[in-house]
Amino acid sequence: MKKWILSAILSCWAVASFACTNLIVGKKASVDGSVICTYNCDAFGMISPLTYSAPGRHAEGEKIALRGYGPDAPVHYIDQVGYTYGVVGLMNEKQVSIVETTWGGRDGLMNQEGLLDYFTLMDLALQRSASAREAIAVMDGLVREYGYGGPGESFAVCDKDEAWIMELVGMGPGRKGGVWVALRVPDDCICAYANSSRIRQFPQTRKIDKKRGFYVVGDECMYSAEVISFAKEMGFYEGPDEGFSFREAYGPLDFSAVRACEARVWSFFRRHGDKEEMDGYLPFINYQLDVCDALPLWIKPQSKVSVRDIMNDMRDHYEGTALDMTVDVSAGPWASPYRNQPLSFESSDGTPMFRERPIGCQQSAMTLVCQMRSFLPDEVGGVTYFNMDDASMVAYVPVYCSINRVPEPFRRENNNSREFSTESAFWMNNFVANMVYPRYSTMIGDLRDAQTELEDYYAADQKEVEATVLGMTPGERIPYLTGKTEAYADRMMKRWAKLAKLLIVKHNDQVMQPSEDGVVVAGRRTSPAYAPAFIDAVKAQTGNRYVKPAEKE
Fold it and tell me: Which residues contact residue 177 at a Cβ distance below 8 angstroms, ignoring those fewer than 6 apart?
């Protein structure tokens, strides 16, 4: 009996990612009819290489091993299925993608005896599902059979035709299953998650689907058999079923969930919706729940959204909004949207304070944008634009869902959290980013030039790749697309090495030399000016100390 050890596939996800963002775009809301979902996996000190599991047929009686939480947790063997799809990152060969964000939920709902953490659940569903709906059903069946041991989670479950959002939480010690609800995002809408439960009321039906073991409401909603009855049993809800809110029962909001999580959703909606209308939700973002107590679950964008738009949305720091992080004194002399202090801290007089938490942040282990396209063959239709580290500081590299090996810069063995390497995408990206962070406004333009150059090249080259693949047999496509993905990753690494050399020379000793096309050229050195808010704050604090006296005649 062959045993496949799933923990080996998933060890790169071993550190829980409790600070993540997912953006979702329906196919009629996108420029080209793509379904799009994204993921920033945020956790300080974490490295998330690109994973790959090959497709394969499996003999009857074959098992895989699951290990629960902790190094001493026992191994449990469960049945393998007859066929598993190939999975690259968080997309499988059928263009099914699953991304997540954690919100925790009420105390006492985790069951650490459950065999499935959320990444194991996602990976098994990707291996076993040819559509988003099938993935949701697979996740429900796995949780009921083997138990869910994770915290409250939101998943974006997408394929080349549909985008679904699913919220799941455990039922506490001694109860194997989980309670959940899944809603289909309207095709002409966009949606987002950022570590808070967002589903409230949902369509209901009285008749359970006996074959599936959960409720199905047309093409718009699915939910677990006990999602309402369990909440009533636990005292989380009293009232008629039709008034039930999943969020209020299992993941009620506090100030941190609103300002550090829902604010990310608000900013995304504001970038694509009516700005004045979205600013009407600022009382909610400021925790004035008596004025406004929720954002919409999804909105219809004012214009259709492109993959490049979504890449830039993943780099958002609230620029141009009431929460803009670049315009006050805490942005420092170089108008930085990054903050070193924790989310919560105290002033010298003991006043509790907080900082903003934008979508783009320095602690991202990896970032990805998944694009699923029904109008192209699966091999080339599914693309994960991937890189490691902060979305704001990297270029997204196209990775096709059909590749059969991981490019060297994204491989686990080349990305060691304790040892710098020029062969590591994580470390080369961090090398550049950590030069830019302290002198943001002076250096970010050089980084944006390199980022745009690469992403323009990738976007233009995609058209040629797609045309080439259409003329190939299925057997020819996989090696071709694997080679293209490797070439894209190699191009990124070379461009980032060039950028690193430019930054250290151009900005040496905190002055700037002129440059052209990424190369320093002869010319006058300049001293970049401080941000106006910083200058004004210095003047306010120091009085006349730095005020130049009038020249004497």
Answer: 143, 144, 147, 148, 171, 224, 226
pLDDT digits (tens, 9 = 90+) for 103-130: 999 999 999 888 999 999 999 999 999 9
Residue 433 covered by a domain: no
Q: Rounded CA gap, 35 and 158, in Å?
A: 7
- Identity of residue 323: L
Beta bridge partners of 536: none
In sequence order, the 6+-apart residues with CB closer than 8 A to the CB of 178 are 143, 148, 168, 169, 170, 171, 224
DSSP collapsed to 3 states, 146-212: HCECCCEEEEEEECCCCEEEEEEEECCCCCCCEEEEEEECCCCCEEEECCCCCCCCCCCCCCCECCC
DSSP state of 259: I
For 21, 133, 458, the CA distances from 183, given in Å and listed in that order, are: 18, 10, 33
Contact yes or no for 429/393 (Cβ under 8 A): yes
Tokens found for residue 323: 């929460």
Q: Which three-class secondary structure state does DSSP give residue 367?
A: strand
In a domain, 128, yes or no: yes
- Phi first, then psi, for residue 483 (nearest 5°) are -65, -40
Closest of 353, 332, 328, 335 to residue 343, by C-alpha: 353
Residue 348, both tokens: 């010298």
pTM of the model: 0.93
Dist CA 253 CA 200 (whole Å): 12
CA 397 vs CA 348, 384, 460: distances in Å: 45, 8, 13
Helix (H, G, I), strand (E, B) or coil at 309: helix
Please say whether the beta carbons of 230 and 179 come within 8 A.
Answer: yes
| Nearest-angstrom CA–CA distance, 256 and 238 | 26
| Rg (alpha carbons) of the chain, rounded to whole number | 25
The reply to whether 511 falls in a domain is no
Nearest-angstrom CA–CA distance, 334 and 439: 5
Question: Is 393 part of a structural domain of the chain?
Answer: no
pLDDT in tens, 139-176: 999 999 999 999 999 999 999 999 999 999 999 998 98
Structural domain boundaries, residue 218: 3-323
Count of domains forming the chain = 1
Q: Which helix (H) or strand (E) holds 345?
A: strand 344-346
Contact of 163 with 39, CB cutoff 8 Å: no
How confident is the model over 342-352, as pLDDT tens digits?
Answer: 889 999 999 99
Spell out the residues 6+ positions from residue 331 whose beta carbon is closer than 8 angstroms to its own. Answer: 325, 337, 531, 533, 534
Q: Which of 363, 510, 341 is nearest to 438 (CA)?
A: 510
Bridge partners (DSSP) listed for residue 66? 76
Other CB atoms within 10 A of residue 203 CB: 14
Contact status, residue 426 vs residue 388, Cβ threshold 8 Å: yes
pLDDT above 70: percentage of residues in the chain: 96
pLDDT, one tens digit per residue, over 220-247 is 999 999 999 999 999 999 999 999 999 9
Q: Comparing C-alpha atoms, which of 145, 126, 146 is closest to residue 136?
A: 126
